Amino acid sequence: MSSVPSTATVAPLARSSATILPLRRTLLLLALGLGLALLPLLLLAGNRFWLNILVYTYLFAGLSVAWNIIAGYGGQFSLGHAVFFAVGAYMTARLFLVWDISPWLGFIPGAALCALIGPLIFWPTFRLKGSFFAIATLAFNEVGLVMANYLETLTGGPRGLQIPYQASLGNMIFAHPFAYAVLMFGFMALCLAIAVWVRRSRLGYYLLALRENEDAARAAGIDVASAKLRATAISAALSATGGALFVMYVRTIDPPTLFSLSDVGFKFALLALIGGIGTISGPVLGAFLIIPAESWLRAELGGGLPGMHLAILGALMLLAALFMRRGLAGVLDSAWRRWRGRKR
Amino acid sequence: MSTAFLSVRGVGRHFQGLHAVEDVSFDVGRGEIVSIIGPNGAGKTTLFNLLTGQLAPTSGEIRFRDLVLNRLRPDKRAKLGLGRTFQIAKPLAALTALENAMVGAFLHHRSLHDAEAHAWAKLDQVGLRARAQVRAGELTLSERRRLEVARALALEPQIILLDEVMAGLNPSEVAEMIGLVGRLNEAGLTILIIEHNLKVVRAFSRRVIVLDHGAKIAEGDAQTILSMPQVIEAYLGKRLK
Amino acid sequence: MDALLHVLVVGILLGGIYAVVSLGLNLIFGVIRVVNFAHGELVMLGMYGAFLAYSTLGLDPYSSILLVVPALFLFGLVIQRLVIEPLQAESMMQMFATFALLTILQNVVLAITRGEGYSVPTRLAAAGVQLGEIRITATRLIILVAVTAIAVLLHLFLQRTLLGKSIRAVTQDRQAARLMGINVERTFMVTFGIGAALAGLAGALIAPIYTLAPGIGGNFILAAFAVVVLGGLGSVAGAYFGGIIVGVVEAFAGYYIDPELKQAIWFLIFLAVLIVRPTGLFGQVGAEEIGFREQT
Q: CA torsion C45→C49→C52→C54, rounded to 10°?
C-alpha cells in the first residue's frame, strides 16, 4: 500500500463488471445495437401483422428505457409512469383536435409539463423506500385513472378521445404502419441516446450511488433529492413523448387503456426486469422478447380458450423471475465472459 | 470566536430522552491528527454523524472554517471539505472500486474523464489499483475499508473523519493503514479518527479525546491520557476485571 | 340525519369487506415484506373454491370455509417456498413474480370458466336485520362479525402463541430471530400460508355478495394496499380499523362529493398518510424501515 502503483501485485484476471468504456466504443456499440434493432424493420417491411408488432416493440422499448433511468439507475421503482404516458397522450391529442396543432410540436407541452409535474408529484414520496415507494406511485396511477374519467372536458371521460383519420406527414398520421415503425424506432433511438448520456454523466453515477446506499451517497457530496428529481424529469418527459406517439398511432384512447397496470404502468417495469434492470440494453432486450411473444401468443391462442395466451405469458414471466434474476442482459453478459474466458 | 479549523461547542444529541452525546466541546486545528476513543456505545459514531450531518444536533454549535454547520445537509458539508468513512463500510456494491472512487471524484470534477483520472490516483494512494475493476461487493473487508478511504479522499477534503478504519484488519493490514493515515497527515490533511486499538492511537496521536456515556471525560496527549485512572476505568475497566 | 346514518352503515359494512381482504395482505407485507400483487387473486380463488364446493358438494358458502381455508393455506405454503423464498434477496423481482402469479391465476381461471359469471347462493341470502329505515342484509353483517372475530383471534394468535411470537420476532429483526434459533424460512412459509388462508376465507365470505369473475381480485387489491399502509404495516388493529376507515371514507365521499371521485379521495388520504406517517395510524414507529435497514 504505497502511494505509487504497486507493481508487486499482479492484477487478478478482472472478474470485473462493466468497465467505463471509452466514448467511441460506447457509441459504436449503440450504433451496432440500433442497426440490429433496425434489421427486422427492413425484413418485415411488407408484413402488416409483424409491422404492427414492431411498432409496439420499438415504442415500449423506448418507454422502458425511459423508465429505467429513474427506476433502474436510481432504484426508484415507479409504478406510476402511466400518468406521464397519459398526460403526453391527452395533451397531444387535445392540442391536435382543438387547435389543430401538429403532433410534431404538440408533444412538447406534454413532455415539458411532465418534466415539471413528475418531480413535483414524486418529490413527497422520495423519502419512502423500496416497496413503499412502489405502492405510493401505484396510488398515483389510480388517482390518474379516476381523474381521467372525471375530467371529461379535457380527456373525453370514459368515452375517451378519437382522432379522425387524416393521413399526412404533418398530422403524424400515416396510411402504412411502416412509417409508424420508423417513427417509433426514432423514439427508441432517442431514449437510448439519452439513457447512454445520463449513464455516462455525473448524474448517472450519482443515481447508481444513491441506489446502492443513500447515506454513502450523501457523504460523497451528492444532493440525493436533486439527483432523483432531475432523473424523474428526464424519465417523465420521455414517457410523455412516448404517450404522444402512442395516441397518434392508435388514434383512440380512453382511461382504462392508458392507465392499465398490466399493459402500461407495470409493463415498463416488466420489460426492464426481464431484459435486465439498470442496464442500458436491458429494457430493449426485454421489449424485443416480450412484445412479439405476447402478440404471437395472442394470435395463435386467442381463438381458443380465453386468457390462455396470458396464462402462458405469466408462466414465462414467472420462470424469467426465478431463473434469470439479472435478466437477459445478465445472461448475455455471463455468456460473453465465459466465451472470453475460454479464448484466453 | 476561536480560529480553530473545526470547532465543536457544547454539542449534544438526544433520542427520546436518551442522551447519546451530551455537551461535547473540542477544537481541531488545521493539519492536526486527533483520536477519539471510548468504550462501545460512548457516542463516538453519533458524534461523527453530527459532524458530517447524518444527524442534526439537538444542542450546541459545530463550526468548520468559521461556518456554522448545524443545519447543513451532509452533501453540503462534503462540498465544504468534510470527508468521512463509515464504521460499517458502505461500499456501493454493484459499482466497481474505480466507480466508487469516481462517485467521490465527481464532486470537484464534472467530466467523466477527469473524474476517472482522479479516481485512479486515489486508488493508487490506498493501494487498490489492481482491484479497480472489481465490484465493490466482491472486495475483502480490508479492501472495502481502503475503498471507503479512497472515496472520501476523492472528495479532496480538508478534513477527513475516519470511523474505525482498522477494525477487522489483520496486523499487517493495520500497519499499512497506519502508514497511509500518517502519510495523508504529513501531506497536510487534517484527520479525526475513531479508534479502538490503543497501539494505533499511540502511533500517531498527539492528541486524544475520550468519550464515555456521550460526554467528553478527558482530552490531552496520548501518553498522559492513557495513564489517567478515570480513562482506564471507563475504557479498560472491563478488560482489567 | 337518516342519510348520514345510512351512509355510515353502508361504509362500515363495506369497510368490513376491505378489512377481511386486508388482514392477510397485511400479515404477508408486514412480516415477509413482500408486495403480494396476487393477493386479490387468492381472494378470487377463495370465491371460486366456495362455488366449487357448492356446485359439486352442494355446500353453503359458509360451510365451504372448512375446505377453502386449508386448501389456500397449502397453496400459500407452496407459493412462499417455490416463488417468494428463492427471490428473498431481490424485492423487485419478488414484486414482479407476484405480478406474474396474478396474471397466471387470473387467466387460468378465465380459461377454465370461459369467462362465465357464476354466483354462489346461500340460504341466508334473504335474511336481514332492520335498523330503523335501514335494512342490513345478513350476508354483509356476517362479514362484519366474522372479520371482527378473525381480527381478535389473529391478534391473540400473534400475542399469545409460540408460533405467533416467532412471527413477531422475525418481523422485528430477522437476524436476531435467527440467532435465537427461530427458523426464519419456515416462519415465512407459515406466515404466507396464514395470509393466503385469510384471503381464501375472505373470498368464501364475500362469495354470496358478488358475481364471480376471474378479474374480481382487482376490485380489492388496491383498496387492500391502501388499508395496509393507512392502518400500519403488520398491525392487526391497523388492517381492521384501516379497512373500516377506507370503507366509511369511500361511502361518504361517494355520497357527499361525487361517486366518481370516491376512490381518488381515499387514495389521496392514503398518499397523505404514506408521506406524513409512513408507519400508518396503528403501526409501530420505524416499522416501515425494518427490512430496509442494513442487515449487518
A: -140
